[in-house]
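Hypothesis: this fold can be encoded by more than one sequence.
Test: take the structure tokens below, design a sequence, compare later.
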């Protein structure tokens, strides 16, 4: 059975408006607004993912009696690929406010000449993942390599019960790659849009540019 891919771009919603503002060159260079829109999309995706989780009935005492309420049974871990993923992560954490958190530092190390690079994982901090629901968030899913390497690194700390891969913009190539390398029996992919291509530098086209720079300022490449 193939991995399910949920593309928010196919159904009109507020996600479409937030994404339009993030793409628009006349709006996106306001870093406060850019980070806020990343956070908002994370919140909406978190709500949709919450519908897929398991719950138990719990009796709650009210001032006038008792009520049966739903309590989340799944233990959630939100894992982020640094640095652009931080405001996106925050949106998920706003809704899954009791979740545990994991962070992976993965970056592109370019060779001396040309556009060729390798993805390097330098740092990871995570709780044990055995039997938990892992939500892997990264706003830009260009090739899928960083997401896969981050996931492989996290597996050193246990095997999650289910995996949700969440991005804001994905390339078609990355979607196909993730669907090929992630476990098909327990993975779901969520994205706000799927763009058709990546360029020679592996940036998504039309995409929105460098999400990390737009959120936190241009980094020194020297």
């Amino acid at each position: 059975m193939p991995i399910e891919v949920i593309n928010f771009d196919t159904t009109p919603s507020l996600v479409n408006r937030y994404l339009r503002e993030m793409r628009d060159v006349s709006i996106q260079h306001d870093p406060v607004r850019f980070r806020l829109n990343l956070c908002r999309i994370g919140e909406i995706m978190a709500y949709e993912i919450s519908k897929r989780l398991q719950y138990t009935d719990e009796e709650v005492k009210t001032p006038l009696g008792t009520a049966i309420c739903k309590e989340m049974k799944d233990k959630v871990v939100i894992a982020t690929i640094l640095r652009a993923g931080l405001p996106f992560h925050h949106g998920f954490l706003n809704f899954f406010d009791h979740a545990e958190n994991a962070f992976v530092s993965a970056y592109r190390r370019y060779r001396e000449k040309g556009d060729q690079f390798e993805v390097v994982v330098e740092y990871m901090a995570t709780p044990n993942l055995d039997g938990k629901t892992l939500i892997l968030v990264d706003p830009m899913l260009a090739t899928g390599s960083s997401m896969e390497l981050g996931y492989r690194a996290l597996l050193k700390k246990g095997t999650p019960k289910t995996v949700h891969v969440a991005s804001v913009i994905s390339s078609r190539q990355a979607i196909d790659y993730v669907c090929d390398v992630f476990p098909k029996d327990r993975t779901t992919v969520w994205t706000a849009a799927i763009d058709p291509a990546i360029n020679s530098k592996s940036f998504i086209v039309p995409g929105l540019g460098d999400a990390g720079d737009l959120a936190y300022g241009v980094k020194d490449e020297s």
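Residues 134 and 163 are 5 Å apart (CA to CA). The two ends are 46 Å apart (CA to CA).
Hypothesis status: open.
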